[in-house]
């Protein structure tokens, strides 16, 4: 987490399984987000599985289906503002849906959905060479740290 005051999180997640659900729009940005998430999982020794969906609107339903089978889910997507309210609807649906998945399943859902006014904002956060942030890595780390913290309080 690149901003001032952000925690330095580390985790050994060798015993955890995590699903990465990634949208497909804006390929260059998505490739960076997925790479960052996979790198964070590998660094933590977590077992990560990648599932692709068409767009950010589809992330919640995929996360809901996968959550029972994994210790955590990481949702990755990017929505770039255009000239219509579509941006607002997709961002709100993805955010609300992913939050609902986490609460209903009791499993952490790492939020790696970039909601950007411009493509450059997405590139700056995608963990690519020259990016100032790596939101895929951050979302994975947050999900794994939370899953590990909740592990002693198993759902059943």
Automatic annotation (TrEMBL):
- Reaction(s) catalyzed by this protein? (2S)-2-hydroxy-3-oxobutyl phosphate + 5-amino-6-(D-ribitylamino)uracil = 6,7-dimethyl-8-(1-D-ribityl)lumazine + phosphate + 2 H2O + H(+)
- InterPro entries named among the record's database cross-references: LS, LS/RS, LS/RS_sf
What pathway does the UniProt record associate with this protein? Cofactor biosynthesis; riboflavin biosynthesis; riboflavin from 2-hydroxy-3-oxobutyl phosphate and 5-amino-6-(D-ribitylamino)uracil: step 1/2
Name the active site residues.
86 (proton donor)
Q: Which GO terms describe its biological process?
A: riboflavin biosynthetic process
Which Pfam families does the record associate with it? DMRL_synthase
Q: Which named protein is this?
A: 6,7-dimethyl-8-ribityllumazine synthase
* Lineage of producing organism: Bacteria, Bacillati, Actinomycetota, Actinomycetes, Micrococcales
């Amino acid at each position: 987490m690149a901003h001032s005051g952000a925690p330095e999180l580390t985790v050994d997640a060798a015993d955890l399984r995590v699903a990465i659900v990634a949208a497909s729009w804006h390929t260059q940005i998505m490739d960076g987000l997925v790479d960052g998430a996979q790198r964070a999982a590998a660094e933590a020794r977590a077992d990560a599985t990648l599932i692709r969906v068409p767009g950010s609107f589809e992330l919640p339903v995929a996360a809901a289906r996968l959550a029972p089978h994994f210790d955590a889910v990481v949702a990755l997507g990017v929505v770039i503002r255009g000239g219509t309210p579509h941006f607002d609807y997709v961002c709100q649906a993805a955010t609300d849906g992913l939050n609902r998945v986490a609460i209903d399943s009791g499993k952490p859902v790492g939020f790696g959905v970039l909601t950007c006014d411009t493509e450059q904002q997405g590139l700056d956060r995608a963990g690519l060479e020259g990016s100032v942030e790596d939101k895929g890595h951050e979302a994975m780390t947050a999900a794994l740290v939370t899953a590990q913290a909740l592990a002693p309080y198993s759902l059943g």
